[in-house]
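Example (one chain per record):
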Amino acid sequence: MKMSEHSTIGISSKPKTKHWPDTCDSEAPCHTFSISSLQILDEHGNLDESRMPDVSSEDLVKLYRAMVLARLVDDRTLKLQRQGRIGTVPLCTGHEAVTCGATLAMRDEDWFIGSYRDLGGRLMRGEPIENGLLYYNGHEEGAVFPGGERTLPISIIIAAQCLHAVGVAYAMRMKGETETAVVCFLGDGGTSEGDFHEAMNFASVWQVPVVFVVANNQWAISVPREKQMHSRTIAQKAIAYDMPGIQVDGNDALAVYKATKDALDLARSGGGPTLIEAVTYRMLMHTTADDPTRYQPPEDLEIWAKRDPITRFRKFIEQKDLWDDEQQTDLEAQCKQKIEAAVAAFESRTDFKVDSPFDHVFGTSHTRIEQQRAEFLDMLKKESADG
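Predicted structure:
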């Protein structure tokens, strides 16, 4: 799928102080709108030089290394789950360009607010690999790491993070942080939630510096996009809230970077929020508790495998003489070493209170919860005694 093949539905800008009439001349359309699309690297790694953003060679290599690390962490985490060494995990394979491309455009002082398919971006923000392993094994300590004060914990509730993003952006404005912005990540299914629309509305009304990045991976668990919405694009949902909207090739890291960078520049200048739809595909299961073979057409996987964001970007940097086979071998070895060290550190932890999930169900002690705690601890003792 080439982005140029999409229907053209960018939004025309207008002065923020203009007030639109409640009614229009019956002989003419009230307003006209369009949504532009962006692709810079095609699926073969060919560059549209006219659209190439200003990115240093160092940052191009940094971006590629981040995407590879995210892919390898995802693969190792899946194996750990299948071996019974970790709990249920959402997978991120195929989404690397979306989260890593957008994160490269961010500053350290910006806020990263996302859901559960943003592994690459979280690693770029400095989250240790071990943290993700802890988190998906039920330890809330995995949501906290030094230097991550502006990277919020993973939002499991669909689209709830959109409200958090707008609230954080509003608070920053009240505190006078004029050079700081928020990037909020969510999936296509999240745009069908009320929280998303409420967040979009308040972001527009308040003109807060938020960039909504929607990874349109075509599936909300087993529900295909066409059964979620009748909109031709997700980006056009920006029209209802009078904010810029753009659809980008979500497997093109450069396109995601440029769209996010432009949106962040607009936000910092007082131009308000932007909605970015990044078109990609979920190459693995929704979570490890899901069986996508029951609903996902295998021919779609074959098509999208040819559009792999990592393969595409590697071809590009190889053409620029920034990468070669030897560097690839070294990178994979380094990543695997780092991952195995994180796994060893994760599995060596014994300092967690096993009944901590019962501690904060209510603000005060509750008889029924304490009964459940006792039953749980008793069950652990019996299992330990049985060997």
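Caption: Residues 356-387 form one domain.
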